[in-house]
Amino acid sequence: MKKTAFYGALTVAGLAASMASAATLDDVKERGVLNCGVTTGLVGFASPDANGVWTGFDVGVCRAVAAAVLGDGDAVEFVPTTGKTRFTSLASGEIDVLARNTTWTFSRDVDLKFEFTGINYYDGQGFMVPRDLGVSSAKELDGATVCIQTGTTTELNLADFFRSNSISYEPVPIETNAEAQVQYLAGACDVYTTDASGLAATRASFENPGDHVLLPEIISKEPLGPLVRHGDNDWGDIVRWTLNALIAAEELGVTSANIEELAAAPTGNPEVNRLLGTEGELGAMLGLEADWAKNAIAVGGNYGELFEKNIGENTPIGLARGLNAQWTDGGLLYTPPFR
Amino acid sequence: MTDRSVAFVRTETLPELPPPPNAAGPTKWIKDNLFATPANSVLTVLAILAIYLILSGALPWMLNGIWTSPSLAVCREILDGTTGACFAVLTERWNQLLFGFQYPTDLYWRPGLAFTLLFFAAAPVLFFDLPRKLLIFTALYPFIAYWLIWGGSIFGPLLALVSIAAGVVFYQKFVTQSFALGFFGGVVTFFVVLTIGGYIIPDTEITEGAMRSVPSRDLGGFMLNMMLGVTCVSLSLPIGIALALGRQSSMPIIKYVCVIFIEFVRGVPLITLLFVANVMLGYFFPPGSGVDLFLRVVIMITMFSAAYIAEVIRGGLAALPKGQYEAGDSLGLDYAQSMRLIILPQALKISIPGIVNVSVGLFKDTTLVSVISMFDLVGMIRGPILASIEWQGVYWELFGFAALLFFVTCYGISQYSQWLERRLATDHR
Fold first, then answer.
1. DSSP string spanning A256-290?
2. Residue A336 lies in a domain
3. Which of A54, B50, B72, B280 would suit a FRET pair with A17, their CA atoms being 20 to 30 Å apart?
């Protein structure tokens, strides 16, 4: 009921806003900065460092779009949004693009009048248990107490999973991730469940991360991606193909280290040439400079570099590529061709 | 000559003996206060046990705390399994906790100076034994503080000051003829001067140097809580008084406007008003040209607390016997005079505890702005600091620090109000 009213209000607002602003690209160019919505702080995905500089995986997408459009990865005004304010910020035109680990769902795409421009992280709901419990599969969790954030889709997924496997559980409702950590460590629940990336980040903050294991089952699909408003397809294309450029760059072996060399003159690989603007005029089709993709990649590296730098296995968060590997490596990253 | 009917009379008093050990000193105090009755003794023992349990847990944790370390992981390495706090997060991120993560580091002296000046500005208002001339500085303070915190051209605050001064001069000149003429004429004068001045003053943005402008969204940390708290409390007190008097007015329009305002605002949760300020108002203004978010939030919190303060003061007004109002009338005072000289001084004195209660609550409620993605002290902790790879997982130290800052402030307010009540105690109870 509450949710319906909320979404209804958003829809009306979204309609009003989409009429107001049509050419986001012109607005951004005139303003000279990209207004990018991010979280107020999520480990590895977006957080300001001690000097107040935003870093993270989602932040990398913002910077890449800014570099593609304006040629400068620092020309971004980061607008922190909470889970409650993110959609209204986007609908009202306060931000041009929302890169805030937002799950692509039917109703958000269709009913809220937003356009998801791709997926930058394939997430899914997982389970964390203490190693001492001796559990190796979520199907062995019959009768377990589970810490679960109330009012989220994770709660519904959990109920579905246990019911379909006809095992029982006892939920321990908690409000925030911080509370969950404390409860879980105090032994108030046997299992903690939330998105797998969140679990990994939570575990990384434990005193003895090795004492806890993530179970192999992933019980939901949480494709996270940047999104824009309905009604400005040109702008949506720019964000979509900037993300695709980052993914394609990894596939084609274009990195921040060799990009200057590759972009200096046409190479033997025509797709690299088209991507970097030394051949063809893909940039002009988007209404951007020929070197748009080169700028986007140069600012933080290709998709793989962004991943490794912010959330990859060498960071404290230590996420494996998994589904987020290139399709050639058995993952789901598969960008349409640049031609 | 001498009458010797009394055999012996001591001519000097005996030296005082110390009281028996059981009836004086610490023993007596302990006996009287801690072990007076069996029930008392049991409670004492339980209390000592509880204190011991808390201290035995907390003291090693605090005393063994680490104050220099780049991250929580290093802290744990240094502690090597022993109990100890990781206060290093406070030393590493103190500036973000106090000023937010976007305020330019080299400009911290500006809000610092504004905070120091706040004491000088507040002193003559709080302690009315001080020379009244100091109130001039208090009147100037809002403009100085605005200029210090936001920076930019000095002409903006100066213009506001001149406009208000013009309004006040107009009011004082014409209030003797008619209150309405003086008041509304003053308001019109204020806006006229402000508009004309807006065209005259140079519209230059200062982007360099010590007084460069800082946009509102770059404010944060405890500074934001202080700014919201001080501004909203000082604005909501006069508005609250006006609302309380308006609610008692015999003029129906004024009365019902006040009643509806108070009842509506009081019936809505503050967080709803904040969402309205952040989200809904965004739709009413074209993107990019809206009213500043800080101002929107100040308006909402002020409305909220003004409604509460109005009800507190109405309680004070209702507590006065009818004879006080009649006394004012019989002396031939008009409404404004009798309110100012007879009713309000008594009503406000009665209302002090209630007003302080609302103020303390309001000050703590400023942390709610963290849900509309403003980075106040709690917003800084929950967002950027706990989300950084170095410090995720540090809860007790950060929230303890926040609690300490709020406690110090709120306890100060409470102590002041108690002093004020004693100072104003004119009855002989």
1. TTTHHHHHHS--S-HHHHHHHTSSS-HHHHHTS-T
2. no
3. A54
Pairing assessment for the beta strands A47-48 and A222-229 based on DSSP bridges: unpaired
Structural domain count of chain A: 2
Question: Is B369 part of any domain?
Answer: yes
| Pairwise CB contact (< 8 Å): A85 & B395 | no
Residue-number span of the structural domain to which A265 is assigned: 2-122+223-329
**Separation of alpha carbons B241 and B262, rounded Å:** 12
Q: Which residues from A are below 8 Å from B379, CB to CB?
A: 40
Token pair for A218: 């992933």
Percent of chain A residues topping a pLDDT of 70: 93
Domain total for chain B?
2
Indicate whether A337 belongs to any domain: no
Taking CB atoms and an 8 Å limit, are A50 and B92 in contact across chains? yes
Check B387 against A47: CB less than 8 A apart: yes
What does the pLDDT read at residue A236? 95
A283 and A318 part of one domain? yes
State whether B232 and B361 are in the same domain. yes
The interface predicted TM-score (ipTM) is 0.76
**A19 with A97, same domain?**
yes
Same domain? A206 vs A138: yes
CB contact under 8 A, A46 and B278: no
B-chain CB neighbours of A80 within 8 Å are 373, 375, 383
- From residue B338, give the alpha-carbon distance in Å to each of A4, A276, B234: 54, 81, 24
Q: Name residue A5's amino acid.
A: A
How much of chain A, in percent, has pLDDT values that exceed 90? Answer: 54
- Which one of B83-92, B284-293, B383-392 scores highest in mean pLDDT? B83-92
Residues of B in contact with A8 (CB under 8 A): none
Question: Are A243 and A122 contacting, i.e. CB atoms less than 8 angstroms apart?
Answer: no
